[in-house]
Amino acid sequence: MSNKIWLMEGLSSQRDIIQGMKSFAGKMRTDITVYASHRNERNEILSVADFSLAEPKDAEMRLPFILSTVAEWDINAIHTGRNCLWFENHRKEIEESGVSLTTGASGPQWLEMADDKVTFAQVMEENHLPAVPSLRINSIEELQHSLSHSPFEGQQLCVKPVTGIYGMGFWRFDDNASSMDVFNYPEKRIVHPGQYIEALAGTPAFTPLVLMPYLPGPEYSVDILADKGEVLAAVARRKEGALQHLENSGEAFELACACARAMKVDGLVNVQTRNNNSGRPVLLETNMRPSGGIGYTQHSGVNLPGLFAFHKLGLMSKTEVIEMAKNDFVPATVRSVTDVIGYSTHLTNRLN
Ligand SMILES: Nc1ncnc2c1ncn2[C@@H]1O[C@H](COP(=O)(O)OP(=O)(O)OP(=O)(O)O)[C@@H](O)[C@H]1O
Ligand SMILES: [Mg+2]
């Protein structure tokens, strides 16, 4: 075994994942080789890998690129955090080359389910896992009706698109909001319902929305390492203002792990919960990919990317991963800060 893992294009945390893997390998005194690739010139990510590659921009070229790269460099494991549905649909051809593939899911149907927040909530409730009460809204008329006949009596209402990321389109309705609030305090995400309806009416196409009761929180973001539905390691981040508290027990943590099992997640994924009016956690969504904040979890002593790589490369058994995650965990509090890093304008590790 040559211990070669390839991280294909992912979302924001690809750099932290590579660095996590390399530092874990250092701690374990076992060498692993990390390949990283991206469609764009993201040298801050590519430069921290042992070797880097430029991905083809054209999806048609992706399969031949993967197969020739695996063959040429003798890669053992591929991880992707983007285009996951495409990867699931090409799993057979990719794995036939002898490489293992991690997409976060164990089948395309799970990615589609996680992508639709109303279906997700419904499937979770069917599995007896509490999720945020979610009503699908397909038109302005339906929204107007639900605002005047609330399905969630006595609770403040909020909306977000049925599919979406980066928190885009999440708004809380407040009858007392001034119409200038959205301009002066956009970060509060509070809008007068009349103003929202008016804005919708001026838009040609209606994007399906989820209508929900507003949950007071706190919110938990739980980073999970799983093997085909078996949770091996997890770290919860309880978000309180600017601080995040790292935990590995409690009701929200257990709910997130149960959700990961029910969804047969595979690899590094992120489950989010929020406490409702009764102080009980309910599921908000599952991102079938590493979260942007996965790097923060290392402050708990548990290196999820490192454990993932070592498990995938056959350097650690499931039991060893489970034991290490349990024994190494220490509670910690973290705060994210903005920072700058030196940017290498020329890559010295480039293979193509
Ligand atoms: N019902 C709710 N009550 C209170 N806050 C909510 C509710 N639904 C969503 N939010 C807030 O909006 C944020 C974004 O929601 P959600 O995670 O479902 O969408 P997203 O676009 O996939 O976000 P991201 O990709 O950033 O995780 C949540 O992290 C949470 O803070
Ligand atoms: Mg989210």
UniProtKB/TrEMBL annotation:
Q: Which InterPro entries has this protein been placed in?
A: ATP-dep_AA_Ligase (IPR052032), ATP-grasp (IPR011761), ATP-grasp_fam (IPR011226)
Which Pfam family is one of this chain's hits?
ATPgrasp_Ter
In this chain the ATP-grasp domain maps to 121-313
Q: Kindly state which keywords UniProt assigns to this record, in alphabetical order.
A: ATP-binding, Ligase, Nucleotide-binding
PANTHER family, alphabetized: ATP-GRASP ENZYME FSQD (PTHR43585:SF2), FUMIPYRROLE BIOSYNTHESIS PROTEIN C (PTHR43585)
Give the protein name, as stated in the record.
Carbamoyl phosphate synthase large subunit
